[in-house]
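Q: What changes when magnesium ion is included in the input?
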Amino acid sequence: MKTAIDVIRRLKNAGFEAYFVGGAVRDFLLGKNPHDFDVATSAAPEQVKGLFKRTVDTGIQHGTVLVLAGGAGVEVTTFRTESDYSDNRRPDSVAFVKSLEEDLKRRDFTINAMAMTEELEVVDLYGGRKDLEEKLIRAVGEPDQRFREDALRMLRAVRFSGQLDFAIDEYTLSSIQKNAALIGSIAVERIKMELDKIMANKHAVRSIDYLSLSGLADHLPSGGLFKTDWSTFQPTGDPLSGWLYAFWHNSKDVSALSAYKFSNEEKIILKKAMAAASLESWNPWTYYTYTPKQLELAAALTGRGDGWIEEKVSLPIESKSDLAINGRDLMDWTDNKPGPWLKEALGEIERRIVFRLLENEKDKIKDWFLDEYNRDK
Ligand code: ATP
Ligand code: MG
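A: The predicted holo structure follows.
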């Protein structure tokens, strides 16, 4: 926060207006530690860049410059408004405006539309403070119009409800119910980002209930996933815990994976976690072959607790490369040429070591192996 205050002071000393805005003000008033500080200013992007040594053009076309100072980054955005929402999506253009008022007016919800000076004086034009006290998500202005401008806001309302454990104001909610179909005009990538945030939340179930209640689920790809019983969902903080829960409770219907363009990495984690969760019991081989992330997700899903951590860290080896022997050793000991036998023998040694039937020591492995090898002959 100190860095952000320094940034605001410098802008003001140069004759510009500058305020904390958005999520930082909201979280500050809630007594939470904001995870980042956004500053709004009357200075144009080029003027902001002129005032600070180190800046990055993170979103210069939207008027945002990232100022690097004191080991932190502060996003400084020129007062702006958005215009010409031709298709319920992002604005066609942004226009810089003179006043803070106009900037706050374009923001989505009253609790996100407050500003604060570096002296911690709050500018609250839309009753954001009252809504914070009453734990309400309420659109700034006429909700129908705001959701028609940008339909993603409907999903953001649902996301904030879980993130903050707030209710959605009745009038705002009824507007979402009326306009829910507009969510179909939003790119799935943006939708998935909000759904990920929803599922990572401690109060995810509150948001997911709103997905049904608001009618948004009816217009989301694979929306049926959000209409089943989520009452036993225990979020781990990882969005994949939610997706895994959804797939698991829908007969493993994974059609959402392509609908939401999951990355290959996400797909693999989910597939493996589902396989691990399907196992009737877990043994050392399970702990050995699945990654911590896959085990964590599968354990959370099936209520297995976190005993897997201890099991995983106490395994004799982590991977094949930890084996005290290799294929070369086996060939030397037996004077045999490579072939299918080699892979099979290495696999059996690996398995025995993981199950602690054999110690991972060269001599011990050799004794055991030659014994087996000669017996088979
Ligand atoms: P979080 O803590 O989740 O980052 P946040 O409030 O900072 O919450 P962001 O998505 O980072 O949320 O957006 C920053 C601010 O920009 C919001 O508080 C809001 O004022 C404004 N904003 C963001 N997206 C929209 C939108 N689609 N429509 C209107 N205003 C928006
Ligand atoms: Mg933010």
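Observations recorded in class: The first helix runs from residue 2 to 13.
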